[in-house]
Amino acid sequence: MFKHLFPLPLLAGLLMAPSVVSQQNHQVISPPVSKQAPSFALATSPSLSAGTSLAQTLGPWELSPPTSATLISGGGPIFGWLNTSNSALSLSAAMASSPIENGAFANADIGTIVEVSFAGGVVNGPGADLVMLDAQFDVGDYAISSDFDGFASSVVVSTSFGISVANIGYFYEFNPAGPFSASAVGIEIDLSSIGVPAGGMVNSLRFNCVNGSCDPISLAKIDSGFSLSVSTLTAGSLGTFDATGGTPSGNIGIGFSLAGNTPTLVNAGACGVLMVDLAPPIQVLTTLPADMSGNLNFSVTIPANATGTTVHFQALDFGSCELSNGVTTTVL
What is the pLDDT of residues 147-185, one digit of tens each? Predict the structure, then answer.
């Protein structure tokens, strides 16, 4: 959503201001003169698909699917797609589907290895970082590894100790008699358990079926709780924006729209296709680095003629590709 093409704060249209005060580094930054505000590239896809980076609530977690999945080895003669609709799915489409639980694969042979990748990576934060999801026709056990050490270290997790998050009816590639009922079960994984240090990042992970009874839905990342808050905006006064829970020292962008908060698909560069709660045209407020705790505090003077204007804001953590909550406010 927020491209690195705009490294300096830039306000546009009604929110144009002569200077921006960054409380993070106590500098006064003069925005460049611009006759036209930057806008975001809208995605051409008319509907959500694999590769879409969307967070969703599933059980006790806020989860984002991987952006892609690849079969490294194994599979087996009856390793086939599961889908809530009776239509074929590729492995990548199943693992990266949204909602996450709608697609899966069943009947993986022992030794089946699937690699999943995440745009922006997965950061080892406090507590669990990932959830292995299984359509529990049988109890699936998985060895999890990462590219941090070339997939050398692994930890085995069993969905027998997991949390049931949904009961789902799946159609199955090799049996037209469906749908068949399955219990979607998730088990948490802490990146520390496979040797990733606190604050370390991985881009790809692998799960290896170690018991021959695996029906993987996906390996999803737990969102960190990245959030945005906005102070009361008053014409002629400073407005303050606080983004918290981002990637330490990573770039955070804040975008805004004067047109509404209708969900919109946008191309976000390395973060892929994101659905944002901003209606086009979407414009950049700022892109700045977070502090060592992953937080950004940013202030800007609201123009004197902005009274009564309704503005919609949302932030993007470029390090994790997580979107914040949307904030809508009216200038006093």
Answer: 999 999 999 999 999 999 999 999 999 999 999 999 999
pLDDT of residue 55: 66
Q: Are 60 and 103 within 8 A, CB to CB?
A: no
AA identity, residue 24: Q
Q: Which CATH architecture has domain 56-222?
A: Sandwich (2.60)
Residue 297 above 70 pLDDT? yes
What CATH fold (topology level) applies to the domain 13-45+225-330?
Answer: Immunoglobulin-like (2.60.40)
